[in-house]
Amino acid sequence: MGAVIQSIDRAAKILGLLQGARRLGISELAAALELPPSTVHGLVKSLQAHGLVAQESSGNRYALGPALLKLSSVYLDTLDVRSRAMRWMHELSRKTGYASRLGVNLLDEVLIIHHDRRPDGTEQMPETGLNLPAHASALGKVLLAYNPELEHDVLSKPLVEFTGDTITDPAVLRSQLEEVRKNALGLEYEEAVIGEASIAAPVYGDSGNVIAVLSVVIPANEWPASETIVRELRDAAWTISKELGASVWSSQVGR
User: Which of 122, 132, 164, 243 could link 110 by a cystine bridge, Cβ 3.0 to 4.6 Å?
Assistant: First the structure.
């Protein structure tokens, strides 16, 4: 077994002790871990700051926090969405000649859960598992547009500038999100990475909610996307949505 980072190991043990809806105080956690209460208190407060642990409103006991529910939901959705999308993403990349990405919300970012490379055989970095900023990616803009809670979380903090084209004005971003909701299509041009642009469309689950986003990645010098690419993207997103049990898809607007 490789080297274990002590603080992460201890934090994981705290989460393990709190599983099963258990509520424990600092002294109980300290006794179970055989650590000083002051050490455990610092670890618990760090976990609480990230939403992984929550303190009772009246009392000094702690339970698992809401961020873990988000993470578990992402994981469960990922298993089904990714497996059903891979075939259609490969077709999308083949038809358009560009790479495609499938992303889901992870806290206030976008997690790429599958990346189908450009079919031209060139050297390309695998992107599955990478995170993208929600406000500076086409994937993220679609997730923001259909998730009011995520939109509020992201816009309540300063928008980080990655390139000269990154949108950092909340009013401008809100205006773009309105367009996404109207057209069911997110756009991004060199906002996160110089030389890269992308378009994205929502993927729906059987609940009727957007559970993932599909995008086509286009070199900036070949922007804007052609009508053919937009159509292929929408068709692929709709097909994946149907496979997941969705009965309607908002991109019927403009289809």
Answer: 132
